[in-house]
Amino acid sequence: MASTPNQNFNKPSPFQRLLSYTHRYRQKIYLATIFSILNTVLDLAPPWLVGVAVDILVKKEDSLFGNFGIKDVVLQFALLSLLTIIIWVFESLTQYLYDNFWRQLSQNIQHNLRLDAYNHLQELELAYFEDNSTGGLLSILNDDINQLEDFLNRGANEIIQVTTSMVILIGGAILILPPIITLAAMLPMPFILWGSLAYQKRLEPRYADVREKVSILNSRLANNISGITTIKSFTAEKYESGRLAAESEAYRKSNNKAIKLSSAFIPLIRMLVLVGFTALLFLGGMAAYSGKISIGNYSVLLVLVQRLLWPFVSLGETFDEYQRAMASCNRVMDLLDTKINIITGDVALAGEKIRGKIEFENVSFAYQNLEFTPSLLPNNERVTSESGVSFNIIQNLSLHIPAGKTIAIVGSTGSGKSTLVKLLLRFYEIGSGKITIDGVDIQRLNLGDLRRSIGLVSQDVFLFHGTVAENIAYGTFDAMDEAIINAAKIAEAHDFIMRLPQKYETIVGERGQKLSGGQRQRIAIARAVMKNPPILILDEATSAVDNETEAAIQRSLERITVNRTTIAIAHRLSTIRNADCIYVMEYGELVESGTHEELLGKNGIYTNLWQVQSGVR
């Protein structure tokens, strides 16, 4: 939901949000900052050493060392050389330390930030993933976090060092130069700082737009790669190439708008730097000529002013990096700030003690922001909320599932069958009513225990890129080979696995694309067998397989459903005719229930479905 103006006004800046997140690294940030400051101080020492050397040549016994009683010029240069070596050694050491600290910090922060963002993402309800594209989320977890890493690697240190240089130069100029010369030399600094801040404000919305455009582009790429089979089968390569070109062009234009503004920064800063340097060159030279300041001090200030003012030019690039990083920071922090709506309960659920009695009591549920034709949902209330329009998919539904029994749920597409499964697993939160397992409200149960007690085999089987064995053991990660093979045999998958090139070590490909639909389904059943849950859900488990495969799957299901509470959702009525009870759903309500024979005797919706599938009608 879009933020209101008042919410945006109260929202912390991206930098504040980043500081708040990096609180745990405070000690290391302090150390890195100290090393950056020390390195800057030591880095500004060579110009001072040059000034001392000039004074030794000009003043001889009256130089800085001469004032400490060292009159011999050779000895003064020897001491100056020794001091130079010490300063350079420590400068190199502090450079190593700050570089090492900042880089390690950037790696640690991006590593933990990515994990925190991903772990938070896993806790969000399914509705969040339906509202946000995979490519957009990947863009946050990869591109945006990497953008922050790039800034922490270099930009943070540069800002600290320029600030330190400015303080040292202003302090030194005040001590050495007449006030009018100091004022003239420092005159550009307020304009440089003001210009940097002004550019920052103007760049902020442009880089926010860049991050949004790259997110859309990543979404298009992820979507097209996932759907490459469909693209090829519909010969839509040229069409998709055009759509990608349009998204890429939008990203290019957005970047160009930001580049045009950021590119003007450095030339403008150069002109301001020129003013300050020229003022010091002329006025300072006149002061040295008239004897108001020493030639050595004049030399030091010339070098120092150049060392400070010219880095302001590169500071423009740092501000550019900063704005890119802050635009990314906002997107990452927005993800971390997304409210987790499904909260785990505090009641533990021991798997071996679960009987599996399930009750739905007057349950109602509505998907948000879905547009339905009201005439198609005659019994459902229309619900209007701040987040949009929704319709009750489940309407005051009550359902009793005895422990250890097999019940089936049938009905036309969109009647709410699969939604019941999602509600039982708490992928979504019910609107009203109550769902219990063994008499305990599932909202009070520990979420991990609840989901561990339920095995789901759906029609849309997802296999991970890895071996057959890894996919069977998924969720039971310490399973032995013998247990994996036994599970495959129960699922009637062992025979076809042994015919694969590397048998159980065969790589199945992304989403299991190297296997057939039936093979994927049987591996999914083997995975459920490995989990050994007290409650088993079969959501259209045989809807997309041939008759032979269906028969094999049915044999395996008959074995694994014994003494286990089983919920079978099916379009093929032949697969559930032996269920202990069959429920018929229409428009989110239960309209019929009974055994296969009892329902046929009612001559209602089930009878009609059976006659259509059996070829009677």
Question: Could you walk me through the main structural features you see in this protein, from its secondary elements to its overall organization?
Answer:
The chain is an alpha/beta fold. It folds into 3 domains: 12-337, Up-down Bundle (ABC transporter transmembrane region fold); 349-453 and 535-541 and 565-617, P-loop containing nucleotide triphosphate hydrolases (Rossmann fold); 455-532, P-loop containing nucleotide triphosphate hydrolases (Rossmann fold, 3-Layer(aba) Sandwich), CATH 3.40.50.300. Helices cover 61% and strands 11% of the residues. It is built from 23 helices and 11 strands. It has helices spanning 5-10, 14-21, 26-43, 45-59, 73-123, 126-131, 134-176, 179-186, 188-226, 228-233, 237-263, 265-289, 295-309, 311-337, 417-424, 447-452, 468-472, 481-490, 494-498, 517-531, 547-560, 596-602, 605-614; strands spanning 358-367, 382-385, 388-401, 406-411, 432-437, 440-441, 454-458, 535-539, 565-569, 581-586, 589-594. A 6-stranded mixed sheet has the order 7-8-9-4-10-11, with helices on both faces. Strands 2-3-1-5-6 form a 5-stranded antiparallel sheet, covered by helices on one side. A hairpin with a 2-residue loop joins β10 (581-586) and β11.
